[in-house]
Write a structure and sequence with these properties.
Length: 523
C-alpha cells in the first residue's frame, strides 16, 4: 500500500529450477595417466589427481549420470610403484594400496560406465603408477566404451589427464604414418607416427575425430611442467577439435579444473533469455488502462546502484563467475520511448537465480497489477514463454494510519480432522483463530497449499464474520485438486475495518484436476 507519488521497489527472482530445465544425463570417462612421472612432487601428483577426481565424481548425480575410469601406463606386473621408472621408494610421497598390481594391457578399463560412484572412487584410489604413456590407446578404449554403452539422450565426454608426452601406440591425432606391424611400445615420444587400428576406418584413426564422429567431447588436462610444448599442443588439439576444452593444471588448481569441467557438462537451463517488462498497458481496478502522458499511472525512477540492478547467484554448489556483477542500468531513455524495461539474461542455468530490481513511482490512485498483461520472460530462442504472476499494489491519496493496524489476527490451532467422510477423496482441517479487530470488520480467509519446492497454490477463499473468525471451523479440499508430493496447508486471513482505504486483492482459483496421490505435512 503506497500513497500517490511514492515509489515502489519491485524485485523479480527468476529461478532456473523448473521441470523443463533439468539437465540431460551425463556419461563421462576419466582417462588418467598412470606413468612413472605421476610419482613426482610431494605429495605426489597421483595423490592430487586422485582427490580432484573424487571431488568431480561427487559433483555428478548417481541417479542420473554414469562415470567410468580408464587408466594408461605400464602393461603387466608392477611389483611396486615406479619400479620400472627408476624411482626409489624413498622418493615416493604417497600411500599405495595395493602396493603391487598386474595390469592386463597398456590401457585398461579400471571401471566401465556405472552409476556406482563409490566403486569408481575406490578404483581411483587403486591406481598404481609406473613407466609409459600410451595415451592413444587410453583414448580409444574410453571412446569405445561410450559408444558401446550409448544412451541417446546423454551428454558424452572423455576427460584425459597426462603429465608427460605420449609415447606407446604413437600419436593420438594420427599424424604421420600408421603402422600395424610394430609393437605398441616401439613408438617413442612425439614420433609423428601411430599404431593403426584395423577395427577403425581411416577417418577414426585421429582420436579427436573419432570422438567427434560419435558426438563425444574430449576435455584435456596438461598436468605439471614435464610436458613439452608439442605434447601440450596435442592435448589442446584433442579437446578443441572435438568440441571440448583444454586446461593447464597443477596441484594448486587441479580440483578447480575438475569442478569447472563438471559444471560445463551440465546442460543450460534456458538460453537466450529475455525479460520484457511492459508498462504500456496496466491493469487498474481490474480494467486495462494505457500508461501515457494524458493518463500517467507509473513512472520509472533511476537510482544509481538501486534501479535498475541485476545480480545472479546459484542455490547449489555450482561455481561460475559472471563478470562485473551486479549490473546497473539506467532505463530512463527506454522508458520514455515505449514504457518498457527490457533485459537480456543470456543463459539461465539449472539452480541459477537472476535477481532483478527496479523502482517505479505511483501516479494515480487505485488497485494495480504491477506487471502489465504483456510482460513476459522468453527463453530458448523464443520457443518458451513465461507470464509474470499477479502482484497487486494499492495506491491511495492522503493515506492516514487507522486503528485497523493495531488489531491482532492469530491462528491458535490448525490440524487435520481424520473423522471426516469420504477420506479417500477429501481431506478436512480443523482451524481455530482469534481476531481482536472491530466486530464490524469483514474478514477473508484464503487457503493455500505450499509444495516442498516453495510453489504456492491457492485453493479457495471465503468470507468470515467476526464471530466465525474467533471459533473453531473446518475446511475440506478435494484431493484431486492438489499438486503431487509433500506440501504444507497454509490458511491466511485478511481483516478489513469499516471505512478502511485498503482494497483486498483477488486471486485466481485453481480449477479442479484429476485425482492424484498427495501427501501432507501440516504447519
Amino acid at each position: 500500500i503506497v500513497e500517490i507519488n511514492e515509489t515502489v521497489d519491485i524485485t523479480v527472482l527468476l529461478k532456473g529450477d523448473g521441470w523443463a530445465l533439468q539437465p540431460k544425463p551425463i556419461d563421462v570417462i576419466l582417462t588418467t595417466d598412470r606413468s612413472g612421472s605421476m610419482l613426482f612432487d610431494n605429495p605426489d601428483r597421483m595423490h592430487s589427481i586422485r582427490e580432484a577426481e573424487k571431488i568431480f565424481v561427487d559433483q555428478l548425480s548417481a541417479s542420473r549420470d554414469r562415470i567410468g575410469l580408464v587408466t594408461f601406463g605400464r602393461n603387466g606386473y608392477i611389483s611396486r610403484p615406479g619400479v620400472n621408472s627408476g624411482i626409489a621408494t624413498s622418493e615416493i610421497n604417497n600411500v599405495y594400496n595395493p602396493y603391487s598390481r598386474t595390469y592386463s594391457a597398456y590401457a585398461t578399463y579400471d571401471r566401465s560406465l556405472t552409476n556406482n560412484f563409490l566403486d569408481v572412487k575406490t578404483q581411483i584410489g587403486r591406481i598404481l603408477p609406473d613407466h609409459g604413456t600410451p595415451m592413444r590407446e587410453g583414448l580409444r578404449l574410453s571412446i569405445r566404451n561410450l559408444i558401446q554403452s550409448a544412451r541417446p539422450d546423454a551428454i558424452r565426454a572423455v576427460i584425459v589427464l597426462s603429465d608427460g608426452d605420449y609415447n606407446w601406440y604413437g600419436d593420438p591425432l594420427a599424424r604421420g604414418n600408421g603402422y600395424t606391424g610394430y609393437d605398441a611400445d616401439d613408438y617413442g615420444d612425439l614420433t609423428q607416427n601411430y599404431f593403426y587400428y584395423t577395427s577403425l576406418n581411416s577417418s577414426n584413426q585421429n582420436m579427436s575425430q573419432y570422438a567427434k564422429n560419435n558426438n563425444i567431447k574430449i576435455y584435456s588436462i596438461a598436468y605439471a611442467d614435464t610436458i613439452s610444448a608439442g605434447g601440450r599442443q596435442t592435448l589442446e588439439t584433442l579437446a578443441l577439435s572435438s568440441g571440448g576444452k583444454y586446461y593447464n593444471a597443477s596441484a594448486s588448481n587441479i580440483e578447480e579444473v575438475y569442478a569447472a569441467i563438471a559444471g560445463d557438462l551440465k546442460t543450460d537451463a534456458g538460453v537466450n533469455t529475455m525479460v520484457d517488462l511492459d508498462y504500456n498497458a496496466v491493469e487498474v481496478n481490474y480494467t486495462i488502462e494505457y500508461n501515457n502522458e494524458s493518463n500517467p499511472i507509473f513512472d520509472y525512477v533511476y537510482v544509481d546502484g538501486v534501479s535498475t540492478r541485476l545480480d545472479s547467484y546459484f542455490t547449489d554448489s555450482t561455481v561460475m563467475t559472471i563478470p562485473d556483477l551486479p549490473w546497473i542500468f539506467d532505463n530512463t531513455s527506454q522508458w520514455s520511448t515505449n514504457k518498457k524495461l527490457d533485459f537480456s539474461l543470456g543463459t539461465v542455468r539449472l539452480h541459477q537465480v537472476w535477481d532483478i530490481r527496479y523502482r517505479l513511482k505511483a501516479q494515480k490512485p487505485g488497485l494495480y497489477n504491477m506487471f502489465g498483461p504483456n510482460s513476459t520472460i522468453v527463453f530458448n530462442n523464443g520457443t518458451q514463454t513465461l507470464y509474470l504472476p499477479d502482484l497487486f499494489v494499492t495506491v491511495i491519496p492522503n493515506m492516514i494510519d487507522t486503528t485497523v493496524w493495531s488489531a491482532d489476527l492469530n491462528y491458535t490451532y490448525i490440524g487435520e480432522n481424520s473423522s471426516s467422510d469420504n477420506q479417500d477423496y477429501y481431506i478436512t482441517f480443523d482451524i481455530n483463530s482469534n481476531y481482536t479487530g472491530s466486530p464490524d470488520s469483514t474478514i477473508t480467509e484464503t487457503y493455500y497449499f505450499v509444495t516442498y519446492d516453495g510453489q504456492r497454490y491457492e485453493m479457495d477463499s471465503r468470507q468470515l464474520t467476526y464471530t466465525e473468525a474467533n471459533q473453531l471451523r473446518q475446511y475440506s479440499v478435494y484431493v484431486g485438486r492438489l499438486p503431487v508430493g509433500w506440501q504444507y496447508f497454509e490458511p491466511v486471513m485478511e481483516g478489513f475495518e469499516p471505512n478502511s482505504p485498503v482494497i483486498s486483492p483477488t486471486h485466481p482459483i485453481i480449477p479442479p484436476a484429476p485425482p492424484k496421490d498427495s501427501y501432507f505435512t501440516l504447519t
